[in-house]
Amino acid sequence: MKKSAAIAPVQYSTHIQLQS
Hints:
This protein is an all-alpha fold. Helix content is about 90%, strand content about 0%. It is rod-shaped, with a radius of gyration of 9 Å.
């Protein structure tokens, strides 16, 4: 579960960078 929580923000940041 800890891994998922650490990956969640990373994937979100990537999505924002792709949209930018």
